[in-house]
Amino acid sequence: MIEAHGLTKRYGSKTAVDGISFQVRPGRVTGFLGPNGAGKSTTMRMIVGLDKPTAGTVTVQGKPFARSAAPLTEVGALLEAKAVHPGRSARQHLRALAATHGIGNKRVDEVIELAGLAAVAKKRVKGFSLGMGQRLGIAAALIGDPHTLILDEPVNGLDPEGVAWVRGLAKHLASEGRTIFLSSHLMSEVAVTADDLLVIGRGKIVAAGPVSEIVSRATTTTVRVRSPHASELAAALSGPQATVDAIEPGLIEVHGPSAAEIGELAAASRYVLHELTPVSGSLEQAYMALTSDAVEYRSGVEGAPAPAVAPAGPATTETPR
Ligand SMILES: Nc1ncnc2c1ncn2[C@@H]1O[C@H](COP(=O)(O)OP(=O)(O)OP(=O)(O)O)[C@@H](O)[C@H]1O
């Protein structure tokens, strides 16, 4: 369990993390999302004691992590700017790290295998691709078999096999009861990996809770209706509670009423339905809606379409228990 209370970090006049309180639960994968500069890395650095909070506290298993006697066996972290001696091989690097914690070479070989580094374990790290460097960083995070894993953009630079590996690894470690906290900008990947989300914007939490709850709260469900009576149905449905888009002859998309309500109305009017499909909002749509006010570095593509999403529901500042 990771717990933060009023966690704050200021760099001069810049408030990177602004009094946030949250819990990251064991046995689950928690995705940490937010626009560039939102404060994700700073928060992660404070969790592992690499940055000192200006105010507030953050604990891992009930105590500030910096005070831990055996850090690598308690928390494994993949953070940017990993200090790896470029002249060393991957195996030498991991052995040196393991030695600082009395961890044997057997575990080093295990994590090399686990991270898919066996073929390059003897190569100097300076020749590593971005993806191999990520795998080495993840291997280092795993070396102490920690109960808490903090991964800052772990799939950055990984090939599809590597992305799938991180996904499987995160889910497996969480199923063993460990706490897995990972940041990513890849919404599609977070959607299939994370159980819970913590969404941050301009240093403040804009949403926290199970992925499905956040997505359904921040997006609307559309219902696709295919019927020979589509235009009659559209006329019957249209009103203050519903908007209807005609997609093609015989196909409409209805926003507002549920699939059940549309089905009831069609039955009452004896309209035949060929399709009645609720289409849920995506995590990407929810993320865009939640963070639209919090994007500091926005690309200026003229005419880029705005995301078709509903306004965000009320933000929560605590993960609901
Ligand atoms: N050492 C530092 N000195 C001054 N400002 C800093 C420092 N570290 C971070 N910041 C600022 O704090 C804010 C939060 O940065 P942080 O790296 O935590 O964001 P992030 O959410 O991890 O972003 P990204 O998705 O781009 O990695 C940014 O405005 C950043 O410029």
UniProtKB/TrEMBL annotation:
One of its GO terms (molecular function) is ATP binding. SUPFAM superfamilies: P-loop containing nucleoside triphosphate hydrolases (SSF52540). Keywords: ATP-binding, Nucleotide-binding, Transport. PROSITE patterns: ABC_TRANSPORTER_2. The keyword ATP-binding applies. Residues 2-227 form the ABC transporter domain. Belongs to the ABC transporter superfamily. PANTHER family: ABC TRANSPORTER, ATP-BINDING PROTEIN. This is ABC-2 type transport system ATP-binding protein. It comes from Cellulomonas iranensis. The lineage of its organism: Bacteria, Bacillati, Actinomycetota, Actinomycetes, Micrococcales.
